[in-house]
C-alpha cells in the first residue's frame, strides 16, 4: 500500500462496513461513517509508519479493489508474540472474485515467513459470511468472546486463530 492508496482504501473499508454490518451494528452509526474522515485517519496512520503494521492492497487492472492489514496482537494493552489480522475488506463489486482469499493468503504467508506461530483475528459473532470465509481459510474460533462497543451498543465478537506452522504445506 502507498500513501496514494489511502482514499481508495477508505472507500472500500467504509462501503464494506455499510454493507457487511447492516443489521449487525446500529444503522445510525453506519450512516454516519465518512469516507473522507476515514481517509484522513488512514493517511495519518500511514505517515506515522513504524513498520509494525503491514498494509496490503489488491489491484485489478491498476485499481485498488481490496485491503488487508496485520500487525502485533494486542491483548488489551499487552503485546504478545502472536500476529493479528486487523482488517480485510474487498470492494463490494469485487466480492466473490477471490480478492479476499488472495489478500488473506498473502498476509498469512508473510506472517508465517516472519516466524509467527499463530495469527488471530476478531469477527462479529453474527457475521456468518465472514466466519465461513475465515473457517475455509483454516481459522477456527478459540472460545474467546468479547463485546465491541458501537455507539453504546455491545456487539459481540469472537476470536479466531490459525496456527501458521502448517503454512506452505497445503
Q: Which helices and strands, and how do they pair?
A:
Layout: H1 6-20, H2 27-32, H3 35-48, E1 54-60, E2 63-75, E3 78-90, H4 99-113, E4 118-124, H5 128-136, E5 140-150, E6 153-163
Parallel strand pairs: 3-4
Antiparallel strand pairs: 1-2, 2-3, 4-6, 5-6
Give me the side-by-side strand order of the main sheet: 1-2-3-4-6-5
Share of residues in strands: 35-45%
- Tally of strands: 6
First-to-last CA distance: 27 Å
Low-pLDDT parts are: none
What gyration radius follows from the Cα positions, in whole Å? Answer: 16 Å
Helix content: 25-40%
Structural class, by secondary structure, is alpha+beta
Descriptors:
single chain, 170 residues, alpha+beta, 5 helices, 6 strands, 36% strand
Describe the protein.
There is one protein chain. With 170 residues, the protein is α+β, with helices and mostly antiparallel strands. It contains five helices and six strands. Strands 1-2-3-4-6-5 form a six-stranded mixed β-sheet. Helix 1 crosses helix 3 (35-48). It starts with 5 loop residues before the first helix and ends in a 7-residue tail after the last strand.
